[in-house]
């Protein structure tokens, strides 16, 4: 394990991911964790992340006492670099020469970190304070125009540091610097491979559930629940029952993907509930977005509970499988064994009074790792690479009342947009592209010699890292043109296609 000590920057998760990309397992811990607790995790190396404060600021996070005396190889980045310098007797000062963004770096001594790398490289900087003198026993290995001490190391003590951010892609050789620290500086081995990850996770589930335990898992059609279910299936076979509530609000082909392709690929024991009619009648006449979400969430839980009762009639079920990911665990403070789902965000969020022990085989994984694990487990690619899709589904992409006819219209338009984006090779580049039907809006058009009075659909392609913020994607005009032409030709009720050019904030990604 490599511990990434989080000094409060949004960079800690990125660092942890980059470490794993070097095939070394990493975990994020808070900077307030005492050193004994860190050592109990038997770390091979420790990385100190960047952070927003100045090391001199009041209340600035401190390096845990005794960290540099543990003998565990340690790598300080940005704030971590300055904190290391300050703790070990170097000096850190506000020189007035801040650096932000791409900055040329000169390697003055290769050492371990820059071994074999070009003497001049561009690195990503973001700092106001600078290290003005390295601690005794440290060799300065790189500098920039504004920052003479931009990297230093003391290989005898296993201590390394850089002022720049090796974890961001704008640092040309950042990944190599990190790899050098991990392999040469800390003696880590690249053993964190997808095959091992899947095998370990399967073994852990086997241990947790025991030889006779039974589990259920709700499938949403999304990648997380699918991968979690496939792992648990591999561990306990048909002692797992999956429940798929088809609420009739999925996109074209998605229910079939779960019921046929997923089952064929995994051999999962699947319990399908076709609840489309029930959801439609519950949604009849409802136009308020929050009201829709509440109704869909409520109906979902009721249907799931009924299915669960049927399954429990065949014998007790002690475990509930959930596709909780590592970022959710970290963001909610980590640690405990409770579900950390953002409840308003998950139609699969289950009632609290259900007494199950949770099985969360993806708790240590990032999204991209979940996708790789899905590939390793042989899941259908369309499922593994599916873009984020909200739990309430197309129900919140029809502005106005949700009806069967409107769902059918939207499903057709959405399928065309997805097909063309994927044909243009953009579906992995774009974060997601909701297609929204403005069901209560009509506009005049002309097709052939006839006047039409149809509905507009909105294309909402966005790029994002984590859906917290987003920008509208610059999809090439010819791709947009094809989507527009095909939708207006092939979906009779639609006579206008419009593009949403708003970032988030001020807008959200979804329209409701
Ligand atoms: P917004 O519209 O809030 O969406 O910018 C951010 C991300 O969350 C997804 N989303 C949901 N996902 N249940 C979900 O599982 C929901 O109720 C829900 N609402 C929004 C949305 O698709 C985007 O990826």
TrEMBL record:
Entry-linked PROSITE patterns: GATASE_TYPE_1, GMPS_ATP_PPASE
Q: So which domain of life are we looking at? A: Bacteria
Q: What class of enzyme is it?
A: ligase
Matching Pfam families, A to Z? Answer: GATase, GMP_synt_C, NAD_synthase
Q: Which CDD domains match?
A: GATase1_GMP_Synthase, GMP_synthase_C
Q: Which GO terms describe its cellular component?
A: cytosol
Q: How does it assemble?
A: Homodimer.
Matches recorded under NCBIfam families: guaA_Cterm (TIGR00884), guaA_Nterm (TIGR00888), PRK00074.1 (NF000848)
**Cross-referenced HAMAP family, in alphabetical order?**
GMP_synthase
Q: What is this protein called?
A: GMP synthase [glutamine-hydrolyzing]
* Species of origin: Bailinhaonella thermotolerans
User: Gene name, please?
Assistant: guaA
């Amino acid at each position: 394990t490599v511990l990434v000590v989080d000094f409060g920057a949004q960079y800690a998760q990125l660092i942890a991911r980059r470490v794993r990309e070097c095939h070394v397992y990493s975990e994020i811990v808070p900077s307030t964790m005492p050193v004994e607790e860190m050592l109990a995790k038997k770390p091979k190396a420790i990385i100190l992340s960047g952070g927003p404060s100045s090391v001199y600021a009041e209340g600035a996070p401190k390096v845990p006492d005794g960290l540099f005396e543990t003998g565990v190889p340690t790598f300080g980045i940005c704030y971590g670099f300055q904190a290391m310098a300050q703790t070990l007797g170097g000096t850190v000062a506000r020189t007035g020469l801040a650096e932000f963004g791409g900055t040329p770096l000169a390697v003055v001594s290769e050492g371990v970190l820059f071994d074999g790398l070009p003497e001049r490289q561009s690195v990503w900087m973001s700092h106001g304070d600078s290290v003005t003198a390295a601690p005794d026993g440290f060799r300065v290995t790189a500098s920039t125009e504004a920052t003479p001490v931009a990297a230093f190391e003391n290989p005898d003590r296993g201590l390394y540091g850089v002022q720049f951010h090796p974890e961001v892609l704008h640092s040309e050789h950042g990944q190599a610097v990190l790899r050098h620290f991990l392999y040469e500086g800390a003696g880590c081995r690249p053993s964190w491979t997808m095959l091992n990850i899947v095998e370990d996770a399967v073994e852990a589930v086997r241990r947790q559930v025991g030889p006779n335990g039974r589990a259920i898992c709700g499938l949403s059609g999304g990648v997380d629940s699918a991968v979690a279910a496939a792992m648990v299936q591999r561990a306990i076979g048909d002692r797992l029952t999956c429940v798929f509530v088809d609420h009739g609000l999925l996109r074209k082909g998605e229910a079939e993907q779960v019921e046929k392709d997923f089952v064929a690929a995994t051999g999962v024991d699947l319990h399908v509930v076709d609840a489309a009619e029930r959801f439609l009648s519950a949604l009849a006449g409802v136009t308020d977005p929050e009201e829709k979400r509440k109704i869909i969430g409520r109906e979902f839980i009721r249907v799931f509970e009924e299915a669960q009762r049927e399954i429990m009639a065949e014998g007790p079920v002690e475990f509930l499988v959930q596709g909780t990911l590592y970022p959710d665990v970290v963001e909610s403070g980590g640690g405990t064994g409770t579900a950390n789902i953002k409840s308003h965000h998950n139609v699969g969020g289950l009632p609290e009074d259900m007494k199950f022990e949770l099985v969360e085989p993806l708790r240590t994984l990032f999204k991209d790792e979940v996708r790789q694990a899905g590939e390793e487990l042989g899941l259908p690619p369309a499922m593994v690479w599916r873009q984020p899709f909200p739990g309430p589904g197309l129900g919140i992409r029809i502005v106005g009342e949700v009806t069967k006819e409107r769902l059918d219209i939207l499903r057709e338009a959405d399928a065309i947009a997805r097909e063309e984006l994927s044909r243009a090779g953009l579906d992995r580049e774009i974060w997601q592209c909701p297609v929204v039907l403005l069901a209560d809006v009509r506009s005049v058009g002309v097709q052939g010699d006839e006047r039409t009075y149809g509905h507009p659909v909105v294309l909402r392609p966005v790029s994002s890292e984590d859906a917290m913020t987003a920008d509208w994607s610059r999809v090439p005009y010819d791709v947009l043109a094809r989507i527009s032409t095909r939708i207006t030709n092939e979906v009779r009720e639609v006579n206008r296609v419009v593009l949403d050019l708003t970032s988030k904030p001020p807008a959200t990604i979804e329209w409701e």
